[in-house]
TrEMBL record:
Protein name: ATP-dependent RNA helicase RhlE
Enzyme nomenclature, EC number: 3.6.4.13
Domain DEAD-box RNA helicase Q: start-end pairs: 1-29
UniProt xrefs under Pfam families: DEAD (PF00270), Helicase_C (PF00271)
Amino acid sequence: MSFSSLGLSADILRAVEEQGYREPTPVQRQAIPVVLSGQDLMASAQTGTGKTAGFTLPLLQLLSAKPSDVKGRRPVRALILTPTRELAAQIGENVQAYSKYLRLRSLVVFGGVSINPQMMKLRGGVDILVATPGRLLDLEHQNAVDLSRIEILVLDEADRMLDMGFIHDIRRVLAKLPAKRQNLLFSATFSDEIKALANTLLTRPASVEVVRRNTPSELVTQNVHFVDKKRKRELLSLLIGKGNWQQVLVFTRTKHGANHLAELLGKDGITAAAIHGNKSQGARTRALANFKEGSIRVLVATDIAARGLDIDQLPHVVNYELPNVPEDYVHRIGRTGRAESTGEALSLVCVDEHKLLRDIERLLKREIPRIAEPGFEPDPNIKAEPIQNGRQSQRGAPRGGDRSGSERHSTAPRRQRSGEGSPSGEQRRGGQGKPAASRSQGNGQRRPARARSE
Ligand code: AMP
């Protein structure tokens, strides 16, 4: 099937062709006709499936085919909400590229940078706004943006938005939108919370499911290498050098760990930079740009900072430490093997992480193949020190609970556990340092988050 058979205009097709896309991906094949028909959509699609073009291309087509009937300043007609700044910036770039030949204006707004330029640009009139929820609300409170003319709403990575505690912000935004509009909801997973949100948001939606829930792309080769914690860095440097890996995204669990590893790799002569929530937006953007253009070989990232990162044909992802939450493993390795390219995901697993590995394999419903570099076999005398709350616990301390218990714990205060204080570095107000996600209160009940993005 070709893009031209999907009913997109010549100007959009031209822009798509310039991107080098030869044919639509499965999510695009399914979602584009639905969106063009004006129907609501609930799509289960992970980053890397081409979902951004799946909603952006038809959205552009709808907006350009029917100019706004509002006189004077252009009202915002399409709103794309995303959980993180990086994702917002990437979607913004895609919108720009796909709308190159259209007379539509788009703008990306997120926190952590000055609000004034954003207000100025809004004043000039914007058709498509890509935003993180907190900054959007700030702009709205300051009357810098009018959301009453929104025709199409996209909630992207809705599962992550809920994980990050944005549900109240989302509801506040929804309250500002006109009742009559088209809604598109994209989520990698469909928890009960997402289903509840979908029920209130969507009217008779078409559903599109592209990759089975929590299934990594088949284009990603996965391997596990057991190794002692103290020798992980040495092994990583060796593998990068031996394999002549030129572009490697490495995940650590904490911001401190990311900094430290980037520094040590530098000492090994491997150019590396860390990105995480404590880095300024400028530093993160610079590091990502350097990584994309190849002037640094390794980008060391925490889960939140890397969420939604779109790096063309990224060949290698390394889990330097396994994530506490098994689903994050799928998100992490989804950075490679995107669209049509293949990739390799390697997890360096020390004895402390065996339980985390078991949880991941249970989620994947299969064992990840083991590989071993001679000379790096784990020392059998080193015994596990289970990880709790991002720190090594006392040896022999009980881990507490069955799988469902640990899930409940791990899904709620995930950000704090991973050492990441704020979603993608979004500054929090009102949260007083508490994690944004709804939290378990010990009695298993959830209390709504108070924090918000900026
Ligand atoms: P996404 O899932 O939207 O983050 O897209 C993942 C990557 O796939 C991005 O680098 C897109 O530029 C690329 N992409 C999107 N659609 C296509 C397509 N039809 N053919 C090839 N690459 C694509």
